[in-house]
Amino acid sequence: MARAIKAENIVAAGFLVFAFTLPLFKGAYSVSMFAHYYIVAILALSMSLVWGYCGVFSFGAAAFYGVGAYAYAILSLSAGETALTPLYMLVAVLISTLLAAVIGYFMFYGGINDVFVALITLCVSLVLETFMAQTAGSQWSIAGVQLGGYNGINGIPTIHFGNQAITGIPFYYFVLFILLAVYIVLRMIKHRKAGYTLIAIRENRARSLLFGYNIEFIQMIVFALGGTVAGMAGVLYTAWGGYITPNSMGLIQATIPVVIVAAGGRKNMTAALVFAVIYAWFTQTLSATGSEYGNIIVGVSLIIAILFVPNGFIVAVFDWIDKFIGWATGKKKG
Amino acid sequence: MRTIKDTNEETVLKLENVSKNFGGIQAVDDFSFEVKKGELRCLIGPNGAGKTTVFNLITGVYPVSEGKIIYKGEDITKMPAYKRSRNGIAIKMQIPGVYESLTLRDNLKIACYNFLTPHCKRRELEKAVDELIAMVGLESLGDPIVGNLSHGQQQWLEIAMTLAAKPDLLLLDELAAGFGPEETAFTAKLVKMLHEQGLTILFIDHDMDFVREIAQKVTVMHFGKKFAEGEMSDIEQNEDVQTIYLGRSQGGDN
Ligand SMILES: Nc1ncnc2c1ncn2[C@@H]1O[C@H](COP(=O)(O)OP(=O)(O)OP(=O)(O)O)[C@@H](O)[C@H]1O
Ligand SMILES: [Mg+2]
Question: So what's the ipTM on this one?
C-alpha cells in the first residue's frame, strides 16, 4: 500500500476539523441535530464492521439498537438515580452485546450464513418491534416502567456526570467522542494484521477455513462487537431524545444502515461514517423544509448510486481524489 | 501408530477404513491407506472416484461417515478443520482457492497470518511474503489484483499460500489441470524441489505424464475404494488399472 497521503485521510481530517468547530458557527438546534446524525453514523459503523469488513450481511443492528435503547430507558427510569446513568449506559450496551453474541453463536455454529443470516436477523428485529408495539396495557411493565406499546417510553433522562445533565454542546461532544472512539478502534482492527482475519472471512470462508481461520468463532465475535456498537447508538439516541418507540427496531431502522453503508462504500469505514452524516443531514433538511418528495429524492439517488457505483459513492470520490493527487504530483515530478 | 514392519519409517497420515456417503452416494467406501514421512504419493482414479472427497475428509471440510484418520500419531477424526490446518495440513484445492479481488501480497498475508508468531512485526510479515513469492518464481509480477493473473500464476500463487503454513503434509488437487507443456514442466520441477526439501506430499492428478514425472508411489481409487497401490511403473503395467481408465483421454482437464 502506498505511503502517500490518501483522500480517505484528508476527508477524515476535514471531518474532524468540521466536527470539533461546529458549535462555534452553528446554533443550539443545529448542534443538537448533528449529535443525532453522529448517532446514525455510529449505527452505520456497526453495519460497516459486520457486513463491510466481515461479510456478514445482517439486519440485526436495528434489534441491538432497540434493545440497548429500551434497556437504558428501563434502567434509568426504574432506578431513578441519574448519577448512575453512565453505568446504565454500560449495562445496556452489555445487554446488546450479549444478545448479539447469543444470536451469533446459534447462527454461526449452526452453520447459518449469507441470505439466511439476513432473514433471521430481520425477523429478530421485526419480532422485537411487533412485541414491543403490543405492550400498551398496564400489565406490561418492567421494574415499574410502563413499556407503552406503540407510543414507547418517554421522559428518559439523558446521561449525567455526577449531578450534571449532559445536554446541548457537552452532549454533542460526548457523542462525537464516542463516534471517534468507535471509528478509531474499528480502523485499528482493519489496519492491524487482525484485519486480514476479517477480510479472509469476507472474501472466501471455505478457503480461509483451510488457512487455519476459526470462522464461526470470529464471525460470532465480530457480530457481538457489532451489537456493542449498535447498542451504543441506541442508548445515545434514547439519551438524546428522551424517548424510545418500537419503530427503533422496525423495517426502516433495519434497512437504513444497510442502504447508507452500501451507497457510501461498505468496505471503507470513513466512507460509511461520512455518508451516514450526509445522509442524515440531507433527509432531515428535506423533511424540515416540508418537501414531501424528500424521501423519494433520497431513495432514487441511493438506487442510482448503488447501481452505477457499486463500490460506494464516497469510495468513488476517494478514488477520484487519489487519482487527481497522483496525477498532480506525478506532473510536478515529471 | 507404527506397524512393526516399518518402524524406521514414520507415518504422517493414516486412513483406517474411512467411508463417506452423501445421501445415497457412497463417495468413499472403506478406504485405508498411509502416507509416510518424506513421501511423494499420487492418488489417481477416474472422474468421480472419490479422490477430492478423500482430501476433504483429511482437511476436515467434511466429517467422515465411518473410520478413523490418524495424523502424526494423533487421532484427528473429530478435530475441526481450522485446527488441522494449524497442525500442518495444507491444501491446494481443485477449484482455484485464491482471493481473486485482493492483491497478490494480501493473498499471501492472509495465508501467513495464522502461522506467524502472534506479535511479529509488520516487517517480518513482508519478509515472509517476499520469500514465498521467490519460492514459486513470481517476483516479477509486483502486487497485482489476483483475479487478473493467468491460470498458471494463480495456481503457483496458491502453492505459495499453502507453503506459508510450513506444512508437514501438503495436499495438491489437480495442480497441472489446464496447463500447457511448459507450465506443466515448471510445476513438476517445483513439486520435486519441495519434495527434496523434505516435504511430505500427497497429490491428485489425471495427467499421466505429470504423474510419471514426479510420483514415486501411487494409490489408485475406483468407486470410492482402493483399487491398486504400488510403484508408478508397476501401476502403469497393471491391466485392470488400464481398463478402468479406458475411454477417458489422458491428460484431460475437468
Ligand atoms: N458435497 C457433495 N455432495 C454430494 N455428492 C458429492 C459431494 N462431493 C462429492 N460428491 C460425489 O462424490 C463422488 C466423488 O466425488 P469426488 O469429487 O471426490 O471425485 P474425484 O475423484 O475427485 O473426481 P474428479 O477426478 O472428477 O475430480 C462423486 O459422485 C460426486 O458427485
Ligand atoms: Mg476431484
Answer: 0.91
